[in-house]
Specification:
Length: 279
Amino acid sequence: MTVTRTCSKTLLRIMATMACVLVGAQAGMLATSKKKAVKGKSTEAAPQLAWPLAPEEARIRYVTTYRGVDDFKPAKKPSRFLKALLGAEDPGSQPSDWMMKPYGVAVSPEGRLYVADTAARRVFSFDVDAKTVSFVGESGAVRLTKPIGVAVDDRGTVFVADGTLKRVFGYGPAGNLLIAIGHDGELASPSGLAVDRVNRRVYVADATKHQVLSYSTEDGALRRTIGRRGSEPGEFNFPTNLTVDARGQLYVADTLNFRIQIFNADGEFVKTFGTQGDT
């Protein structure tokens, strides 16, 4: 999919909103090829974009683009949900009520969308079906300062990496703090998170330590440290983002080595792909 270049602030908002679109596509809610003609909306046919291309079976399909509140009905008075989702400007309100710099995105097994926003200092929790928005970690002694990574396990525990506090916090479905990870200076620059729901692990990419750390989702204990700084297989140069597949394999965006590295559930190197210029 391609996104027309516009100002960086608007681009970030559209990218975060497109996460909602992809959630809908994953659930099978694909848009029709044309939109109804309503005020403020385009009547052009939606482009039929998918990846990978035929003859491969498409796994990601473009649905639509949200540009503003006019893309929703009714839109006479935008709801709090839409203002937060679209990053609406409201001079009379707290800036942190609206998305400003969304970074981490995760979806719960129930389809709730979580967005970590480093500038708003909040993790937004969107119920797309009910069109409601709430916030993670708003109560208790710990106040998030720079939430950057977010991941959700099969029990609904929301893990949030805070780059300033240098910790990872786990919150229950009700928003209560369950666990704090990263004691005694274990983490320097936590960023991307990923949850292995089968083996009960949460992986944390530490960019400036050039490592990926594996913690138990049960008690927060450090189970394994993967990698060190370097360019050899299994080594990292500013790892940033992570994901885990259905087999428990860990994928690491090894950012300044310009590659993706894959590890098995035991933390052993499997393979790598990508070189500078194509990743």
